[in-house]
Specification:
The protein has a single domain, classed as Rossmann fold, CATH 3.40.50.10320. It has an eight-stranded mixed beta sheet, sandwiched between helices. A two-stranded antiparallel ribbon has the order 6-7. By secondary structure, it is of the alpha/beta class. About 35% of the residues lie in helices and about 15% in strands. It is globular, with a radius of gyration of 17 Å. Helix 4 packs across helix 5. InterPro entries: GlcNAc_PI_deacetylase-related (IPR003737), LmbE-like_dom_sf (IPR024078).
């Protein structure tokens, strides 16, 4: 956790209009960044989602052929709750995503097509909390996506994408333990909660706790007060400067 001794935390830049959120599975965005996305769409920004998989391996006892369409539908509903109406699935295999050149190419293609100024990614470190191993898919997708931002700006790495003009994002904002910047999401809690509740079937499969209780816990964890940032509720990001 960021210590108060580090001084004030900066605001995530908001002088942009187009954003792309890249995640491994349905639900990842709602666990971390839905409130921030809502804040930005309420400012009139255009946000799109790209998910590497449909989350088909995510519900115990429910076959992937049934789980994939269900989780896709839940993600589309969750996106709408925070003002996002463009959700793309790349159909990589849930639980078996590799940090490959193919994934980098597909993400670079998406970045060139959507031309985001801001790219939002999710914690791709080996651990997501002390002593808690991160998902292999999260690690693979996050690392590949950070590389794909540079790939999208280079005409010579994936020449098969030559039909799409190169594109250089301005920033990448990554959720997780190493936040350097934050956004005030105090007015976006209700929308973020609605987005989490859209994943009701998935949440119900996680254990005996009522879905509403679990959803409240998820939103509280994602929007707690941040040391050094003057907001009742905030979401923190590690900011990477891609270009000025």
């Amino acid at each position: 956790m960021r210590g108060a001794s580090m001084g004030p935390m900066e605001q995530v830049p908001e002088d942009w209009q187009t954003g792309l959120v890249i995640a491994a599975h349905p639900g990842d965005i709602e666990y971390e960044a839905a409130a921030a996305v809502h804040r930005w769409t309420m400012q009139g920004k255009r946000i799109r989602y790209v998910l590497a998989s449909r989350g088909e391996a995510g519900i115990a006892g429910l076959p992937p052929a049934q789980t994939g369409p269900l989780r896709e539908k839940e993600e589309v509903a969750a996106a709408k709750a925070v003002g996002v109406y463009d959700v793309e699935f790349l159909d990589y295999p849930d639980g078996r995503i590799e940090e490959s050149l193919a994934l980098r190419r597909d993400l670079a293609r998406a970045i060139r097509r959507h031309r985001p100024e801001m790219v939002v990614l999710f914690d791709f470190r080996d651990t997501w909390a002390p002593g808690r191993a991160n998902s292999a898919d999260h690690r693979a997708v996050g690392r590949a996506a950070l590389d794909a931002i540079a790939d999208a700006a280079n005409e010579w790495i994936f020449t098969e994408l030559s039909g799409l003009p190169i594109w250089t994002a301005r920033w990448a904002a990554v959720t997780g333990q190493a936040a350097t910047h934050a956004v005030d999401v105090t007015d976006s809690i209700a929308a973020a909660t609605e987005a989490v509740l859209a994943h009701s079937r998935y949440l119900a499969a996680l254990g005996p706790a009522p879905v509403a209780v679990r959803a409240r816990e998820i939103v509280e964890n994602a929007t707690a007060a941040v040391d050094g940032f003057a907001a009742e509720r905030a979401t923190g990001f590690e900011l990477f400067y891609i270009r000025g």
